[in-house]
Amino acid sequence: MRYYHPSGLRSLELCPRFEYNPNRDTTKAESGTRIHRAIETGDFSPLDEIEKEIAVECITYQQSLPHDENRQNEVGLDYHGPTFNLKGTLDYVSYIPTSPTLRILDWKTGRGEIDDAGENAQIQSYVSLAMHAFPDIKFVETHIVAPRSYPKFSSHTYSREKDLALIDLRIATIVARVEAEPKIEATPSEEACRWCGVKARCPKLLSIAIRQGTLLPEPFHVDPTAILIPEMRMKRHILAELLEDWVKQVKAADVDAVITDGVEIPGYELRNRVGNTTVTDMAQAMDIMRREVGLPEVSILNACSMSLDKLSDIHKAEKGGTKKDSRELLETKLLNVISKAKPTVWLQRTRTKSERVTKKKEIGNGSIEI
Hints:
Elements: E1 3-4, H1 9-14, H2 27-41, H3 49-64, E2 69-80, E3 85-96, E4 101-107, E5 112-113, H4 121-133, E6 139-145, E7 149-150, E8 153-159, H5 160-179, H6 190-195, H7 203-212, H8 230-261, H9 282-293, H10 297-301, H11 308-319, H12 323-333, H13 353-364
């Protein structure tokens, strides 16, 4: 039986065929890693201003809690049991001897909706790890600190006597569905599909794409006015977001099949384009172009581009202060030689508390559908 990780349990609970996307954009994950490390070490120098604000808010929340003992960051635990194997790293753990209670804090540095601590699968798996690792602990006090998410903070205290068996049953059920033979088919959902790395191979998602897209069988009639209903627009937009990544995965899988397996796709042929060439050291390139090529500096500069964001980083590093102050100063000084692109406008998913509760009831009843 393989080891399961707390961060993936919720997605596997929604869809037993879920797999992480190895080609996903890791920018946000890398930012989260920097913030976690800064909270652990107290060194904020690698962080930008937004990351620093998140780290400070996390530490401020931790310091606002009642006194505890034996504080530790990044505590790794694992559990090998009869129905599941679990391995994870807890962001922050401390001990409250009067109960006895373990306090667990989990830092969430991204955006988006997060299940409350009292029902969060990842948090409950941490509780299971902690209670199995420390048999004398009677309670685990959990806190989710998510400065950029909803809800921003949530907490819940779990009891060994009342909660551990139910938590372990939940985890065991997730694992049993994943490892069942014959395999349980995929169950597409907004939350799981968004991060899944096998959308291109998912027959369920393909059937939804065909049913909702342009390959519908004839005769098929759609009331044009129905598309204008806000609820229909919402469902259509959710599907569009999921299919954007589905399209990327399909294209990548087909290119790999042509290159690796020699598959021929009717109507398509493999093309190859040389990647863009970039100058990595502008100062050295400028010197070579002046001395060895003989181009004047003004002409060279006309072929170059500058990023106000990077210039702000350089100014901050050289002169001190905040990046915001550096940017405002440079925008003032360079007012006549900079231009701003039109602002980007997009729709971002939000939910009220009542909507979140309704969605969870629908999922629980098995009636949720994209």
